[in-house]
Amino acid sequence: MAQGRRVERVASLIRREMSDLLVNGVRDERVSLGMVSITNVVVAGDLQHCKVFVSIYGSEPDQALAMEGLRSAAPFLRGELSRRMKMRRTPELIFQHDKGLAKGVEILGLLNNLEQERQERGPVPEGNDLP
Questions:
Q1: Nearest CA-CA partner of 28 in 84, 58, 72, 62
Q2: Using one digit for the tens of pLDDT, what is the confidence trace for 9-24?
Q3: d(Cα 9, Cα 89) in Å, to the nearest integer?
Q4: In 25-99, which ranges are continuous DSSP H helix?
Q5: What are the extents of the domains in the chain?
Q6: Could you tell me the pTM of the whole model?
Q7: Which tens digits make up the pLDDT trace of 85-120?
Q8: What distance in Å separates the CA atoms of residue 23 and residue 45, rounded to the nearest whole number?
Q9: For the structural domain made of 2-121, what CATH number should be given?
Q10: Under the phi-then-psi rule, with left for phi > 0, alpha for psi from -120 to 50, and beta for the rest, what region is 67?
């Protein structure tokens, strides 16, 4: 049980430090093309690997470039995490594009369109209730 809490604590610290590094530490212009935010961090139980899930706002080409930039900056980011967190062994960083927010925005847009169509049609006439 204590191992699980330790892994969660490390993941939380990595998320906080990575957020700061993405704003202040990464100078790769590809990363700044899309607005990058960390949605989740999952650290393996042995602390050897760390998946960093990122959401990237921008066009598809900008998102792809931002992911390339993140992957090329991974060794630098790992070194910075090691220095900041003073860990004996810093996990390898694996960046994953989290498209969940984009899907959510798309679904909200569809729901808004349906609501707008419903408003344009007006109220449903009496007696047309479905069973």
A1: 72
A2: 889 999 999 988 888 8
A3: 15
A4: 29-33, 60-85
A5: 2-121
A6: 0.74
A7: 888 888 999 999 998 777 777 788 888 888 888 888
A8: 28
A9: 3.30.300.20
A10: alpha
